[in-house]
Amino acid sequence: TGKQKMKVFDGDEAARAGRYHTVSVPRISRTDDVVEAALREYFLPGNPTDYELRSLSLAPKRAVSMATVTWATTRAQRATPETSSLSRVFRDTLPEAYVIRAKRSSSEVVKIYADWLCKGVAYVSFRIDESHTVRSVITEVLLLLGRKNESPDDYRLTEVMMHCREVQRRVLVMEQSMLDHLHEIRKQLSVQRINLTRFYITAKLDGDGNTQLLVGGLPPGLAAPDYLSLLHQPGSYKQNTATITQIYSKQGAVALEVSSCAEAERLFRLANDSKITVDDKIISINLLPTLILHPQPEQMPRSCHPLLVLINPRSGGMQGRELLHSFRKAVNPHQVFDLACGGPLPGLHVFREVPRFRLLVCGGDGTVGWVLSLLEDIKLKLACTQPPVAILPLGTGNDLARVLRWGPGYSGEDPLSVLINVDEAQEVKMDRWTILLDANEPECAQERTSMPRPYQIVQMNNYFGIGVDADLSLGFHNAREEDPGKFNSRLHNKSVYVKVGLQKITHNRNLHRDIKVQVDNVDIDLPSVEGLIFLNIPSWGSGADLWGSDSEGKFSKPCMHDGLLEVVGVTGVMHMGQVQGGLRSGIRIAQGQFIRVVLQRETPIQVDGEPWLQPPGNIIVSAGPQV
Q1: Domain of 418, in residue numbers
Q2: Ras-associating domain: which residues (predicted)?
Q3: Distance between CA atoms of 267 and 607, rounded to whole angstroms?
Q4: 468 and 603: one domain?
Q5: Are residues 411 and 455 in the same domain?
Q6: What is the pLDDT of residues 250-292, one digit of tens each?
Q7: Which of 62, 277, 331, 516 is the most exposed place for a label (fewest CB within 10 A)?
Q8: What are the distances in angstroms from CA 26 to CA 29, 71, 318?
Q9: What is the pLDDT of residue 605?
Q10: Is 445 helix (H, G, I), strand (E, B) or coil?
């Protein structure tokens, strides 16, 4: 009677490392029931009869020992008293844990993906047995792909293992048994890992020995010799083994071509393990895949638009991390980049010579703005200077995704349906705006900062807020900084936002007395408001229509590519709540192409949801390049 919890390890490596999942089953359970529960816990497909459990001793200071748990073969046998004791897992003496294993089979079907463009063919599949070596697999794949006259010695079979944070590649030895290799992956690594592993057939090229690295975290604004001098320090790369192929001066990053694969791997491991520093700053090193283009890229079919997927794993709780796994299985894993590992630059550098490609950005509006800003900075280094950008919204807010009809947030759709939507989406233009913040020479400021501050330039995509709107965002931001672990659900985020709003509900800043606004060089007489919002898109505060849908003679209908910003006022927190509830709209004030704001006291502001306190001074908003 009752339930019992047991530890289930997936593979010998997990057992040695102590990584397990807890499975809860009835105390009197048969082996097949426990196997089914373990498969569900690890999200493993397949028939339970293809798996077995091995009992695992966790006694201290003893070697790991395993014994196969006996399988009950048929329902009739399970029903008999003679076999029921053998088929039950739990008795008086209970094993401490189990390792789940796939049963060894004499043959199985493998999928092999071609590393070159094959029209209408994503992969070939066929059955292998004990006699198949890597060489014979390559020979059979070449035959199935119509390359029967080519030698298998000119090709190699590469194992690509897709983790959440990185993609591992390994070239298989030509004479090793393919079936033994698959069994070894399941045994040593994990049964689950085989579902995250692909095999690619690739042609051997003369340049295979060169490896691409992207080094970030360097001082910005230096020349190539200075970057080489910085990198050539004790513990960094060996002299004459690497050359700089591209400099991203503003980002403080350089691309290196390393002549030795072993040296590239040494550098990569060294950066991750011992933290190489340059000018007391830890640098990052990304190992990049090599993109093999058509000999004449301009002859690439006009209908061919490779997809670059950029995913922010920190957006939307754990959604970003799960999408990394999903998309690395849905497309070539080398097209999918983790923004937590070097930002958008590694992926854009890999695609820099592709004449036409598309971007799928998985994250919030801040992530999209990050990618768009980098695209603007490095567009002269890209063959495709303005790739279309699709959005898979994660987390809360997502006003830009709502306007572009990508939805309010990701709700677990199949990655294939997302890819179909990207392929069928219509391209549209969007205005972007440049905001110059100058706190050095405030006009008529009653309070001046003791130290002069340099001007700052930021880019805006969605909206720019001054006053109560930014004050709420700043309160939410500070709460999240204090305890970021709690902010992993939309419901909690919204509850904190409401709590901050209630704290600000009695504030009366009289913002219209503290600032001056010019629109297209015309002074604006501001009404009595607590907040001003400058809108580029018709969505604010998680989908609210702040401008309103009513037509008004002196204002044109807002559009995200009309070259105009809408200036709207709100009277306080209550007014903002009514707008978000659809009961009211904001106070329409102006539309224009060039805006100048003078702050006469320190005031909270926010740009696309990023808030801070801005000292008194001038703020100038002007049109930037469209995207």
Answers
A1: 304-424
A2: 106-172
A3: 38
A4: yes
A5: no
A6: 999 999 887 767 677 777 776 666 666 666 777 888 888 887 7
A7: 62
A8: 6, 18, 30
A9: 92
A10: coil
Query: In this structure, what token pair is assigned to residue 79?
Result: 């029903």
Helix (H) or strand (E) holding 362: strand 358-363
Residue 75 neighbours by CB distance under 10 Å: 7
Residues 608 and 527 reside in one and the same domain: yes
**146 and 160 both lie in a single domain:** yes
319-330 and 415-424 helices, crossing angle to 10°: 70
Contact 112, 123 (CB under 8 A): yes
In a domain, 488, yes or no: yes
pLDDT band at 12, cuts 50/70/90? confident
List the CATH number of the domain containing 549.
2.60.200.40
Helices (H) and strands (E) in the chain, counts: 18, 32
Shared domain check, 551 and 457: yes
User: Rounded to whole angstroms, how far apart are CA atoms 24 and 443?
Assistant: 69
Question: How is residue 604 written in tokens?
Answer: 């909270």
User: Which 3 state secondary structure label does DSSP give 536?
Assistant: coil
Q: What is the mean pLDDT of residues 413-427?
A: 91
Q: Which of 260, 288, 316 is the last residue of a domain?
A: 288
* Neighbour count for residue 265 (Cβ, 10 Å): 13
pLDDT above 90 as % of the chain: 26
Q: Are residues 200 and 212 in the same domain?
A: no
The pTM of this model reads: 0.69
Q: Is residue 560 part of a domain?
A: yes
Q: 297 in a domain, yes or no?
A: no
Q: Does any domain span residue 399? A: yes
* Type of residue found at 127: R
CATH number of the structural domain spanning residue 84 = 3.10.20.90
Judge whether residue 468 has pLDDT over 80.
yes
Q: 508 is written with which tokens?
A: 């009366």
Average pLDDT over residues 55-78: 43
CA distances from 535 to 531, 541, 621 (A): 13, 11, 12
The answer to whether the beta carbons of residues 8 and 54 sit under 8 Å apart is no
Question: How far is 140 from 109, CA to CA, in rounded Å?
Answer: 13
pLDDT at 209 over 60: no
Contact (Cβ atoms closer than 8 angstroms) between residue 310 and residue 358: no
Does the structure show a pLDDT above 90 at 580?
no
Q: Could you report the per-residue pLDDT of 514-554, keeping only the tens digit for each?
A: 899 999 999 999 998 889 999 999 988 887 888 887 777 78
